[in-house]
Each structure stands twice: as structure tokens, then as C-alpha cells.
Design goal:
There is one protein chain. With about 350 residues, the chain is mainly α. It has one domain. It contains twelve helices and two strands; from the N terminus they run H-H-H-H-E-E-H-H-H-H-H-H-H-H. The chain has a two-stranded antiparallel ribbon. The longest helix has about 35 residues, at about 315-350.
Length: about 350
């Protein structure tokens, strides 16, 4: 595989998954929840992340790049937008405190903001009012979806040190270990899609191990499976993702989908690219804005619930919040995140590196 290859369909898949998650969060705490199975989209992110990170860095880590340089690159890529989202979320949680919409004390909120800003979870027994619901003990009260970004960062740390000795057998062993642990967790708890709260945070560990390293294994076996899988129209893949994410399932169906459907979908997506320039441009943009949307959408929704006093506006909520989230995500990515990443790269890395064009 050449280093100039672009996985346009994977870009589109990432964007569609991010939008589905956003739509679910905007309606989850109303009377008209949609995309109730969007937790599976997080597992898609994990698998896609493993594939893309291995594509972008595995060969370099095994030849010339140090683990330290890799981790600096990943931190520069991930942290600025993460901090933008967390800062918006900090405003929202402080506002909720002033309105009596959480039982967190001001000292607890300061502790949560401090820990969350360092990629560390806040573990305590509390609730935050979101729409009609009191959501219990999220490990990221500043920005609830960021729980997954913590797991992503630490799995990148592990990958940076494991890559030097990585081969198909070792990566497959890690994937199977994560699979076994995750299966046992779901059987014992009967809970699916874990990791987001203090009561299920342990389950997030095998979830990210299996998801990420299954993506790494897919990359390492790319030349093998591409000869046997069908090339599928990317528009059909996009439609399939939306259909699968639309309705919530049981924990066991979620587990089976995570194990079988997600890696297969990523594998098919990696060999199926758009055949026209318009679709390619759309998928490229979806990939570009997927991470910014993921980082900023929930704080925007939290602020909306404060402005509307948690009133249930049903489908009107996403009609208002989606355009705002997209505009904020685009502006933040274009005019804050990318310039900051370029400055940080010039400080800490080779100035010739152009962060904005990094496929990771």
C-alpha cells in the first residue's frame, strides 16, 4: 500500500457516524430519540482509528520515528480540539451548577474540570440534568462524549510503544484478548456499550482494546482481504450505517455487531472508494469535520437546554442545534484548531510537517 492512498469512504463513514451520534445526543433526552444505536458508531471510531493510525504511523515507528515523536504528533492532533470542546463544556457545567441542575459542588466541578483537562476521568456519585433526565456519574461531566477520547489517547500511547515489535500475530492476540474480556464483561453485567460512566468505566478498557487493535489487524492484512471482499458503492455503505444506527438493540446484539459488523464494514469501506469527484469531496469534508463535531456538539446541546429550561422541543431541538454545531465545529477547526496545531508542530516537530493534511 502506498503512503499516498486516501481512504475516502472511511472519511465519509467517520463523518456519518459522528453526525448520527450528534443527532442521538440532541434527541436522547427528549420524547423523540433517534439513532438510539449510535453507541455502535463509537466502536466504528475505535476500529477506524486503529486502521488509520496503523496506516499513517506503523511503518515509520518500526523504521525511524520514536515513540516520543509519535505521541507528540498524536497529542498535537487530538488535544486542541478536545480542549475547545471541554472549555465549552466547562461553561455549561458551571451554568448548570448556578441553576441547580447538578448536585456537584463547586469544588467538585473544579476538580472535574482539572482532571478532564488532563485526559483523566472524574469518578464520583452525582447527576447532571440534561433535558428531561438526570444523567448519573459521567466520567466527563465537562463534555460527556469525551470519555471515548480518553480511551483513544491512552490506546495511542500503548500503540506507540508496542509498534516496534508489532506483527500480525501479536496484534491479533491483543485483539482476541480484548474480545474475550469484553465478552465476559457483557455477560456478567448484561450491559452494552460501556465506558462512559463511573459505573461502567471498566468495560471501556476491553472495548477500546478490541476496537482499536481490530483496526490495526485489518490494516496489516489489507493486501490479503482486499482480494476477497466485494467493492461496494460508498453511498450504500453510508445508508447501511444510518439504518443500523437508527434503532437501539440489546447488549448482546450490540456485542455481536461490535465483533462482526464493525470490522467487516471497515474492511469493505477500506477497499470501496467513491467513483465521482463530488462524492469524494463530500466524504473528505465529512471526515475533516467529524472530530470537531464530536468534540463540540454536546456542550452546545447543554447550553441549549439551559437556555430553554430543559423544555422538551422534540424534533425541533436538532433542527436548531445541528446547524449551530456544524458552524461552530467548522469555525473552530478552521480558525483555531488547525492554526494552533501548525504552531505546535513548528515548536515541537519538524517545521515541514503540515498538521492539517495529516490523515490521522
Amino acid at each position: 500500500m502506498t503512503t499516498s492512498h486516501r481512504f475516502s469512504t472511511l472519511d465519509g463513514m467517520r463523518g456519518i457516524a459522528s453526525i448520527a451520534i450528534m443527532l442521538h445526543h440532541f434527541t436522547q433526552h427528549t420524547s423523540r430519540s433517534i439513532f438510539s444505536n449510535s453507541g455502535l458508531a463509537v466502536d466504528m471510531f475505535f476500529c477506524l482509528g486503529g486502521f488509520v493510525v496503523a496506516y499513517s504511523y506503523l511503518d515509520r515507528l518500526q523504521k525511524s520515528m520514536s515513540a516520543k515523536e509519535f505521541l507528540i504528533k498524536r497529542l498535537i492532533r487530538l488535544y486542541p480540539m478536545f480542549l475547545i470542546g471541554m472549555s465549552l463544556g466547562a461553561i455549561a457545567i458551571l451554568w448548570k451548577y448556578s441553576n441547580g441542575q447538578t448536585n456537584l459542588s463547586i469544588n467538585q466541578i473544579i476538580a472535574a474540570i482539572s482532571l478532564n483537562s488532563l485526559y483523566l476521568p472524574y469518578i464520583s456519585d452525582f447527576y447532571v440534568q440534561v433535558g428531561k433526565d438526570k444523567v448519573p456519574s459521567e466520567i466527563f461531566p465537562t463534555n460527556a462524549p469525551s470519555w471515548s477520547l480518553v480511551f483513544v489517547f491512552f490506546i495511542n500511547v500503548a500503540f506507540g510503544f508496542l509498534a516496534l515489535r508489532a506483527n500480525k500475530t501479536r496484534m491479533l492476540a491483543l485483539t482476541l484478548a480484548g474480545l474475550l474480556w469484553l465478552t465476559i464483561y457483557v455477560i456478567l453485567t448484561t450491559k452494552g456499550a460501556p465506558g462512559w460512566g463511573a459505573r461502567n468505566v471498566v468495560g471501556g478498557i476491553p472495548r477500546i482494546i478490541f476496537g482499536f487493535f481490530s483496526g490495526v489487524v485489518l490494516f496489516m492484512t489489507f493486501e490479503n482481504y482486499r482480494r476477497y471482499l466485494p467493492v461496494v458503492n460508498p453511498n450504500y455503505i453510508a445508508a447501511l450505517i444510518l439504518v443500523v444506527l437508527l434503532k437501539g438493540w440489546t447488549s448482546y446484539i450490540w456485542l455481536g455487531s461490535t465483533i462482526l459488523f464493525v470490522p467487516l464494514l471497515v474492511a469493505v469501506g477500506s477497499i470501496s472508494n467513491p467513483t465521482n469527484s463530488h462524492t469524494s469531496r463530500v466524504f473528505k469534508y465529512l471526515g475533516w469535520i467529524s472530530y470537531p463535531i464530536y468534540c463540540v456538539h454536546f456542550p452546545i446541546y447543554s447550553i441549549f437546554t439551559l437556555l430553554t429550561d430543559n423544555a422538551d422541543y422534540g424534533i425541533l431541538t436538532p433542527l436548531i442545534c445541528v446547524p449551530v454545531a456544524i458552524v461552530v465545529a467548522h469555525f473552530a477547526a478552521k480558525y483555531i484548531d488547525e492554526p494552533v496545531r501548525n504552531i505546535l508542530s513548528n515548536w515541537f516537530l519538524n517545521p515541514r510537517n503540515v498538521v492539517a493534511n495529516s490523515p490521522g
